[in-house]
Write a structure and sequence with these properties.
about 120 residues, single chain, 7 helices, mainly alpha
């Protein structure tokens, strides 16, 4: 993930979510936002933050293993990278982080967002 870290920036992260959020789907967006909000917590160790930055960098990468434009599978590799990082930092995901993320999801997608797939793995 060290190579992907250089692709992460807050501006690029939000731009990617705005442009591809609907196409990526609720689970990808939810996972990415969980990682983003954990990254903002001051008590998260540097090693965990580097894992998050690597995963978010991969998500932002314009050319990754499976191109994002590939219909039906374009975000599969992104979701895998984000999911692996999420499992490694899950202990830092508290109710406050989940509330922030679910508020963002409601603003973007409305009330019909199902986060149970990701929540079930935490």
């Amino acid at each position: 993930m060290n190579e992907t870290e250089k692709h992460y920036s807050e501006e690029k992260f939000w731009d990617k979510l705005k442009r591809y959020g609907l196409k990526a789907g609720h689970s990808v967006v939810y996972t990415a936002l969980l990682l983003y909000f954990v990254l903002q917590k001051p008590d998260v160790p540097k090693k965990s933050k580097m894992i998050i930055i690597g995963a978010l960098g991969y998500f932002i990468l314009p050319t990754d293993f499976i191109p994002d434009m590939a219909v039906g599978v374009g975000f599969t590799d992104d979701f895998g990278a984000l999911g692996l990082a999420l499992l490694q930092v899950a202990m830092y995901i508290d109710d406050d982080v989940k509330a922030q993320v679910k508020g963002k999801l409601r603003n973007w997608f409305g009330d019909d967002v199902d986060t149970s797939e990701v929540d079930g793995k935490l």
